[in-house]
Amino acid sequence: QDRSLKVGTYGGYFQESFDTHIYPDFTAATGIAVESIGEPTGESWLVQLQAAARANQAPADVSMMAQVVRLKGASSKLWAGLDPKAMPNISNLPDHFVSTYEDGTVSGVGAVAWYITLVTNTDAYPEAPSSWNELWNPANEDRLGLISLITTSFLLEISAKTHFGGTDILDTEEGILQVMDKLGEVRRNVRLWYRDEGQFQQALETGEIPMGQYYHDVAGLAAADGKPVRSTFPSEGGVLDSGSWCVSKASTKIEEAQVFIDYMCQPEIQAKLARNVGTAPTVNRELTDLTDEEFAAVSSDTPPILPRYDIYEERGDWLNQKWAEMIAG
Amino acid sequence: MTRVLKSIFVALVFSFLAAPIIVVLGVSLNQPKRLLFPPEGLSLRWYGALFRESDWLGALQNSLIIATCAALLAVSLALPLALHVWKRKGWMARALYSLGVAPFILPPVISALGFMIFWISTGFYGRIEATIISHAIFLVTLPLVTISLGLQSVNEELLEAARSMGADARTTFRTVTFPLVRPYLVSGFAFAFVLSLNEYIISYMVSGFTVETLPIKIFNSLRYGYTPIMAAVAVSFVALAAIVFGLIARFGDLPRLLGAERASR
Amino acid sequence: MTQVSLRNVTKRFGTFTAVDGVSVDIPDGSFVCLLGPSGCGKTTLLRMIAGLEDLSEGELMVGGQSYGEVPAHERNFGMVFQSLALFPHLSVADNISYPLRIRGISKGECRAKAKELLELVQLSGIEDRRIHQLSGGQRQRVAIARGLAIDPQVFLLDEPLSALDANLREHMQIELRNLQRKLGVTTIVVTHDQREAMSMADVVIVMRDGKLQQIGTPMEIYRNPANAFVAGFIGVSNLLKGILDGRRFSLSGAQLDLTPEDIIPDGVAGPAVLSVRPEDITLFAGADGAGPHGRVTFIRDLGASVEILVDLGGAEVTSICSPKSRPDVDIGDEVTLEIHPGRSKVLAA
Amino acid sequence: MTQVSLRNVTKRFGTFTAVDGVSVDIPDGSFVCLLGPSGCGKTTLLRMIAGLEDLSEGELMVGGQSYGEVPAHERNFGMVFQSLALFPHLSVADNISYPLRIRGISKGECRAKAKELLELVQLSGIEDRRIHQLSGGQRQRVAIARGLAIDPQVFLLDEPLSALDANLREHMQIELRNLQRKLGVTTIVVTHDQREAMSMADVVIVMRDGKLQQIGTPMEIYRNPANAFVAGFIGVSNLLKGILDGRRFSLSGAQLDLTPEDIIPDGVAGPAVLSVRPEDITLFAGADGAGPHGRVTFIRDLGASVEILVDLGGAEVTSICSPKSRPDVDIGDEVTLEIHPGRSKVLAA
Amino acid sequence: MLAISFFRQSSGGFYEPVFTLDNFGRFLSPFFAKVLTVSVSFSAGAAAIAVAIAFPFTYLLVQMSGRAQAVALVFLLSVLSLSEVIIGFSWSTILSQTAGIGNILAGLGLISESRSFSPSSGALLTALVYLGFPYSVLVIYPAMSRLDPEIPEAARMCGASPVRTFFTTVVPMMRNTITGALILVFVFTLGAYILPQTLGRPQDWTLSVHITDQAVFQSNLPFASAMSIFLLLVSLALVGLSMLLGQTETKR
Ligand SMILES: Nc1ncnc2c1ncn2[C@@H]1O[C@H](COP(=O)(O)OP(=O)(O)OP(=O)(O)O)[C@@H](O)[C@H]1O
Ligand SMILES: Nc1ncnc2c1ncn2[C@@H]1O[C@H](COP(=O)(O)OP(=O)(O)OP(=O)(O)O)[C@@H](O)[C@H]1O
Ligand SMILES: [Mg+2]
Ligand SMILES: [Mg+2]
After folding, report:
1. Which residues cross the membrane (chain E) (predicted)?
2. Which of B205, D16, D85, E191 is packed most tightly, with the most Cβ within 10 A?
3. What is the DSSP letter of A241?
């Protein structure tokens, strides 16, 4: 019996954690071997999956997809519709982590959640900043590193929450433009608009770019490693983003994929992820045995900023264009 | 005085060229699993890791397969083309030659996108064959140029001599033309091989992560700030290129291959 | 019987006629030099004989058979190219035995024959060298050996010696001629060096602008040039303009009485040109002699001979004498010319 | 005063010595030919004089001043290169006036000077042509005009005529020599053609393997060659081995009594070589004469002269005679040699 | 095959085979005009600098012995085999605050405190020059090696100093080659996609970055195609021009 499955997660540190902490136990428990694939950024992975599916190929059977991309994929029916009955454990997840097609089949299941927070170099900033508003602080001129892809940086939401009292203003184009204008003011503070996490992390650690937005989990690991880095949940909240398991329709391993997703939805596994990978669980917290301290390390009690995935799907091209114009100045 | 200035200028240019290589070399010798320069603690472990870690090994394998096949294919496309151009010197032949040279001269993004669309629409997207063929077409310029140079250096009187001694057209090709252009064929192969090994954008757009090559792998690991293996790969490739071209220079006439008229002394 | 006959052979490249109606018979076993200035069509003519160019017109007969349609590789001719065209990727022995191997002869036999041929051209023992390891003269001989490997019916050579330096060239001329005498193969050599042609040839064919000018033994051509071009091309010639009246030739300020030995073609009279060789002019100091006189413009003392250039009322005349008989004149001096009787030729003006 | 003096001038390329301790004085206003076989260091020596190569050792004096450290572009020399090195992107006039423009002379003046120089080299009216529109001979003259534009102290030419065909070359030799006579500029010409050197030079410098062999007028060198190499390189020479005893020279089967006019260097005795010019050997048919005898191996009848090659017990001897005095001999015949008294030189063996 | 692929992308859209000019319309906006200007200025600047360095460098190169030339060429070709990814990474390291030349300059006292030079237009330009330099040497090298070395020597004998010689003979004689090299490097750097991202700020991102973004991140192939058709036309015109120039020079 040599059942196997190709699973894609974000490459690098993420993939490595899964390789060491999750897959071996999964294989031991189910007899399904995992071939681990490192994904690039979500958008290009989506394009790859789409193109490959046209050629009836699946570079990975199960992929961890960010929400915007998951939605895009779902709208072109790229994801296979999964049978919820084959995955009893998904009932552990709150509804917003389980996406379904109209016919009731499941297109995506929450895999992990993470926060984007305000990170600083502790040598450059002895005091932790408390608000996203620091991004606008003129004292921080030429000191920020921000994510350059609109669909992963969620700066629109951050800006809306910080300066317009919430993300509702993003409902209309005029509102978005207003937020963009506000965001434009950040530009002079930005040293690096990054796509590559590695590039920013290195600069952050050395103090070359002492402040920016980054992933709470990775920053925490670096801090634990003794690097002069800290991650702060601003008073407005961190951005809560998540990745979902999606299965390419070109995959021939639907059954194994369902076994895998079901396995991943167990509270013990989610807790293990929180401890070892540093992600926030997608199952309800009460089901896990995480201590308060452990939970605080991966999450926060401050209400999070929730990304407005809908606007990216509705106005993708337009937003992109405006965004490109905005960051280029 | 002027001589000193000249030497300084040449030395500056060389250090400009060498700087990145030194950086990658330094990074590749890091002890910790970080991309640090200057390196912290010297170690060769990442070179070893390149041949031990299965995903890197797989990428290496892919790269080598692609480079070998693409270079072979490019050479076998270039040889008949070059022969044709050499025999018929009309404008048609010249146009054909330009067509062979074009893909390499245009911005690679364009070729990459063209290939991507082509393979998607024919349904071969993501197959290793697609990458091989794309590379072969992209790089066909190199063997085409070297073989053409080789053919130009074949004195026509040699062929006539063979004919006057009783060799028909095929025998002449087999016993004279081919042995004479063989070194140029080999160097065309080498050029194509080395460049295919390092090609990024086309491989990326044509089969991306299904057929992961080393440059793609490097780009990804760079993206996640991850492992000095990628530096080790880069250094190995530069070393490989230096060896290949060094051999060509040693056993062939590299300046002439690059178009110098006077043979090197 | 490998007589080579050309009948009205013509070659056109586009609208340009490189060889224009040449008819020649080359006797079996003779050594022929094709001589003419650069671009006159010598190579083209040789290549047509070799079968490397098609004839635009005319007929080529070898040994009594028409050869116009026989492709080059079936002709069994030997050829030596100007660039020698030795195969750089083969050893000396392999070069020489190439035509034999093509004909399917075994390796051993090839090797034996190569050895024999190398002996013939006095190069024993270099069988296994590479071509680039040979000197110019050695390459020359290897090329000749290769051309002779199949005992060719006809042996063709295109400026075989032009790349060699003067001494080696003269030496190779002698060697080539002796070799041909030994083998008796009908041989056609292209050259643009008249000295070379006169050294080697039984028969010289002079061409110009694709047309045959004259054919004959070297001495016939030297003594009795068909026209001014041939006179000037074969050796140095002084072409003196004047008026011919019977045997009397009048030129600027002097009159010459031609002897019966001087050659006067039928029908020439009135304005004519007298071709006189430099060695047939003697100079005397002073303007008081009976012959034409002029002024010395340049003296070229080469040791073995002295050339004196004289301005003869606008025409430049060259006289050659041995150092012993050198007249006592200097640049600018007036001299009188004496033209030796019986050695001139009159040409139509 | 633009005497050029070389003192022990040496040039090394790595371990290879291209010019080896040459010391020469070149008098003001003289026309000097640097002569020697290919690779002997002529070009290198000329380039050192021009300042294009540094001296590895030795000293260069021009007009009494040390020039070793003066860079090429400050030397005020004229130079004509073997490839001519005309500037393809400039017109004829601009080429010629380039050295003047570099010196800041106005356009108008440059133009006038270019016109004047073109007249000097007999090329009026082609000022505005491009270089690639000129014939070989015209280019030659333009290069010479450019070299002369600044009234150079010293005029250097590296094989200036080697690319021209024989007729044009002889013509240009005369022209160049006459031009130099007119201008009186100290001129050094590199050539490997002894005929050319003898035609033009006041003084010939013979080199070999980077070393000076002999310096003298053409006739001195022809008559009194310093060694066997010079004897063979300047004209044709027969080098006969034998034994010298006082004035008596014994060679294979014959004895010669040398006259006081024959040159015998001091200290030579015993085994020696006699250098005899071909024109100083007369042949007689038959083996019964008093002189050395041998067998005819080749006859080269060139019309103006006849060369007869004789095998003299292993040594090949060349004799030249005029067609009139040609002995009645043929290949294979036995002949007796008569060597003219008073015209030979003895060389150390 | 190439023709087909280019042909296809021009035909409107890949996802919806409906012919539309919207993509070209979108491209004709002030924003993309700016992007195009940026791309062109970077490539032109990189080409100018690369050739300005490569030309005298090659001039000196061909004067070296055959052996030295071979070694230098092997080195150049090895540099050529560095992929854009590595070049970008290396230059961002070299120009960073901690590990780069900032330290050297600070050590020399030229600037008060080490600083980072990346990302910036200067960093991008440096890396583009680096990318284009080997190519410009390879283009100039053949023509330069055919230049009769006696010509500059002749100029020196005419009284021109070495610098003057270089500018009055070598440069004018190689004018076409220089143009050819300029165009080649221009076109080549126009295609750079990774360098602008890693070393440039968003306002430095070139058309190639946007093309790739559209194709790879936005899966908007029609728009990507429209942009690359435009880029293709520009490049083709320039390449054609350079070939033409190259030909007239070799004809002489
Ligand atoms: N393939 C060709 N196409 C067009 N013209 C040609 C061709 N081959 C030769 N010619 C022309 O024919 C003429 C004669 O050429 P050929 O080579 O026979 O001259 P040649 O007498 O051998 O001269 P040389 O002594 O320079 O070798 C020349 O004007 C040449 O340009
Ligand atoms: N730059 C150089 N480096 C090394 N060797 C050189 C150099 N220039 C010349 N030589 C060598 O020096 C020797 C003399 O060369 P030179 O050019 O002076 O000869 P030459 O007498 O002018 O010969 P030719 O008649 O062939 O022009 C030759 O053996 C040559 O190979
Ligand atoms: Mg010819
Ligand atoms: Mg020389």
Report:
1. 31-58, 70-91, 122-141, 177-195, 223-246
2. B205
3. E
- In the three-class reduction of DSSP (H, G, I as helix; E, B as strand; rest coil), residue B56 is classed as helix
Q: Which of C72, C92, C90, C184 is nearest to C146 (CA)?
A: C92
Contact C317, C238 (CB under 8 A): yes
Angstrom distance (rounded) from CA D10 to CA D32: 20
Q: What is the CATH number of domain E46-251?
A: 1.10.3720.10
In angstroms, the CA B192 to CA B213 distance is 16
| Ligand 1 atom with minimal separation from the C44 CA | 18
**pLDDT band at C318; cut points 50, 70, 90:** very high
Alpha-carbon gap, residue A101 to A35, rounded angstroms: 28
Least confident of A247-256, C285-294, E122-131: C285-294
- The confidence band for E103, taking pLDDT boundaries of 50, 70 and 90, is low
Q: Please state at what angle helix E30-62 crosses helix E121-146, rounded to 10 degrees.
A: 40
Q: Which residues pair with A37 in a beta bridge?
A: A8
Interface contact C248, partner B, CB < 8 A: no
**Quick one: DSSP state of residue C37?**
S
The DSSP code for A152 is H
**Residue C211 in contact with ligand 1 by CB distance below 6 A:** no
Q: Please indicate if any CB of chain E lies within 8 Å of the CB of B212.
A: no
Q: What is the pTM of this model?
A: 0.81
Structure tokens at C115: 């050895």
pLDDT in tens, A254-290: 899 999 999 998 988 888 888 888 888 888 878 888 8
Structure tokens at E179: 């143009």
Phi/psi for E124 (5° steps) reads -60, -45
pLDDT for residue A46 is more than 60: yes
- Among E42, E216, E220, E223, which would you mutate to test the A interface (most chain A Cβ atoms within 10 Å of its Cβ)? E216
Does D22 contact ligand 2 (Cβ within 6 A)? no
- The interface predicted TM-score of the complex, written ipTM, equals 0.79
Separation of alpha carbons A57 and B124, rounded Å: 10
Cβ–ligand 2 distance for D44 under 6 Å, the answer yes
Average pLDDT over residues E170-176: 88
List beta partners, residue C238: C276
Residue C110 burial (10 A CB sphere; 0-12, 13-18, 19+): buried
Centroid of ligand 3 to alpha carbon of D243 (angstroms): 49
For residue B42, the model assigns a pLDDT of 76
Contacting subunits of C (3+ beta carbon pairs below 8 A): B, D
CATH code linked to domain D4-223:
3.40.50.300
- Residue E97 has its nearest CB partner, among A47, A50, A206, at A206
pLDDT tens digit sequence for A82-137: 998 889 988 888 888 888 888 889 989 988 888 899 999 998 888 888 899 888 98
Residue intervals of chain C classified under CATH 2.40.50.140 are: 236-348
Q: For residue C145, give the nearest of C168, C166, C165, C124 by alpha carbon.
A: C124
Poorest-pLDDT segment among A168-177, B158-167, D147-156, E221-230: E221-230
Output the pLDDT for position D1: 55
Residues 6+ apart with CB under 8 A from D165: C38, D136
Token pair, residue D93, equals 């006039």
Q: Which CATH number fits domain B63-212: 1.20.58.760, 2.30.30.40, 1.10.3720.10, 3.40.50.410?
A: 1.10.3720.10
Q: Domain spanning C236-348: which CATH class is it, in words?
A: mainly beta
Dist. CA A231–CA C132, nearest whole Å: 74
Q: Quick one: B29 exposed, middle or buried, by C-beta within 10 A (0-12, 13-18, 19+)?
A: buried
Domain locations in chain B as residue ranges: 20-52+226-260, 63-212
Query: A211 is written with which tokens?
Result: 């402040």
- Tell me how far apart the alpha carbons of residues D147 and D134 are, in angstroms, rounded to a whole number: 18
> What's the CA gap between D47 and D18, in Å, rounded?
12
